[in-house]
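Hi L.,

You mentioned the student needs an example of a multi-chain input paired with its predicted structure. This one should do, with 219 residues in total across all chains.
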Amino acid sequence: MSQNTSSAVMQQRSEPHDSLDDFPTQPWATRALCEHVLKGCHLASKTVWEPACNRMHMAAPLAEYFRSVASSDVHDYGIEPDTNGFPFQYDFLFMGKSPIVNSDWIISNPPFRLAEQFIARARDLATEGVAMIVRTSFLEGVGRYENLFSKNPPSIVAQFSERVPMVKGRLTATGSTATSYCWLVWLNGVTTTKLVWIPPCRKKLERADDYAAYREVAA
Ligand SMILES: C[S@@+](CC[C@H](N)C(=O)[O-])C[C@H]1O[C@@H](n2cnc3c(N)ncnc32)[C@H](O)[C@@H]1O
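Structure written out for the whole complex:
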């Protein structure tokens, strides 16, 4: 048995307590959610909010499927706001009145250490459903079971059959990872959990320009 010690693996998401958890998601993983998990949810007529949008690598593919996309992040990553003012700077866990109301969906890759709070806040705000990509290991843990899963189990656990490499501070086109990810979906009113597998789809769902702005220089 060998251990994968590539830099992507070594940069797993074990971050300092006050870290922003800056790990962008490869766009194909968001397309996989829309194509394989939320198909039948009539996304083309729905609105979505990506509340930890970082450099827009999740918000951009969501715009391919949803009627409109709102985006925000607690940190300013230097993305020029569009004519609707998105993205805007906002702490999603600030419990005051939300600047976005009646969003059908809230979808994100939340900072790992704040994922439970993100899920709770998103479920309070979204009118139809919430989807969060998390490490598959997020499903275990007594505290998380007691606080979250025993009370509010996800409607769908969608396990990736392929790995979704994420590295700190940039989108990677080529990285590998030993970390497994899944999408957790809460559909309002559904209280039982269905386990599904996302079939291999990276090759089909990747676009040539997905990594253009952050193209890695070959070593
Ligand atoms: C794992 S990254 C995900 C980025 C993006 N969703 C993606 O998938 O490419 C987590 C993001 O959460 C943001 N973040 C951390 N705490 C936050 C908060 N309280 N409110 C909003 N965004 C926050 C970070 O700035 C970072 O961009």
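You could point out the following to them. Residues 23-205 form a domain with the Rossmann fold fold (CATH 3.40.50.150). The chain has a mean pLDDT of 90.

Best wishes,
N.
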